[in-house]
Amino acid sequence: MAFTLGPRATKAGYGLIAFDQAGSTNAEALTRARGGERGPCWYVTTEQTAGRGRRQRAWIAPRGNLAASVLEILDVTPAMAATLGFAVGVAMVSALRQVSLEAVMRTGGGQLDFALKWPNDVLANGQKLCGILVEAEQVAAGLAVVVGIGTNVVGAPAGTPTPATSLHALGMAVSAEDLFRALADHWAEYRGIWQDGHGFPEIRKAWLDCAAGLGQRVAISSGTAIIEGTFDTIDEQGCMVVRTTEGRLVPITAGDVYFGTAATARAL
């Protein structure tokens, strides 16, 4: 089965380069940007051997999983470009809900519960399904922004900080190619809403509508510090805002997030 773009992505002018196997789709996109590629273009594979997640953590995609990166050349600040991670999270949840409904209509069964975990995970039934990584680099044409997303379609790694799962393990029979086609179309929609950052307030609202752990007890491990409280919201820059027991609102720019009983255990 071949990777293809959906009608909305095609109309928006996206290109598509598919690999039988790739070290890292993000690295492929950045290499092309340095060579003068202006995008917008998707780089996809069903087998990634040297992918990276946040904080340089390995993200390996065995054959049958989906590794996809989109290259955009933008005239925005790096801080604004980083908010594209929220747009792709909402796009992926929309795509997953679409293909999940289609699978239910074909085979029966129940739909899965998809949610977004700050800052860069997509959850399925409370377990990690996707990881998101946004990278940016100045090139001759402007700021080359690559938004990468890896999805466990057929298999998931063991021993991850957040327990991981795959679509197949959850009984959802879908291919990486079908999921990508839906993702590319929903990305074209939400990239248009984001509109070089001017539409981030709408993206923020859509992200919060999908947020995992909102209003729940949370602990964030950031370096040697642990911040505890309640997940209150995300702010206009995309920071997680934690309400402490003293009532202070603390913005968090980065860290590993633990909810519920995991938050309690992490704080001890």
Largest sheet: 7 strands, mixed
Distance from first to last alpha carbon: 49 Å
Contiguous helical run count = 7
Helices and strands: which structural class? alpha+beta
User: What is the number of strand segments?
Assistant: 14
Write out the strand line-up for the largest beta sheet, numbering strands in chain order: 1-2-5-9-8-7-6
Helix/strand order: HEHEEEEHHEEEEHHEEEEEH
As a percent range, the share of helical residues equals 25-40%
Task: Characterise this structure.
- By secondary structure, this protein is of the alpha+beta class.
- The protein is 30% helix and 32% strand.
- It has seven helices and 14 strands.
- The strands form three sheets. Strands 1-2-5-9-8-7-6 form a seven-stranded mixed sheet, with helices on both faces. The chain has a five-stranded antiparallel sheet with strand order 13-12-11-10-14, covered by helices on one side.
- α4 (84-107) crosses α5 (176-194) and α4 (84-107) packs across α6 (200-209).
- The model has no long low-confidence stretch (mean pLDDT 92).
Write a short abstract of this structure.
Helices cover 30% and strands 32% of the residues. The chain has helices at 7-11, 25-34, 78-82, 84-107, 176-194, 200-209, 260-267; strands at residues 15-19, 41-45, 48-52, 58-61, 66-74, 114-117, 121-124, 127-139, 142-151, 217-222, 225-234, 240-243, 249-252, 256-259.
Key features?
268 residues, alpha+beta, seven-stranded mixed sheet, five-stranded antiparallel sheet, 14 strands, 30% helix, 32% strand
How would the blueprint of this fold be written?
Elements: H1 7-11, E1 15-19, H2 25-34, E2 41-45, E3 48-52, E4 58-61, E5 66-74, H3 78-82, H4 84-107, E6 114-117, E7 121-124, E8 127-139, E9 142-151, H5 176-194, H6 200-209, E10 217-222, E11 225-234, E12 240-243, E13 249-252, E14 256-259, H7 260-267
Helix pairs in contact: 4-5, 4-6
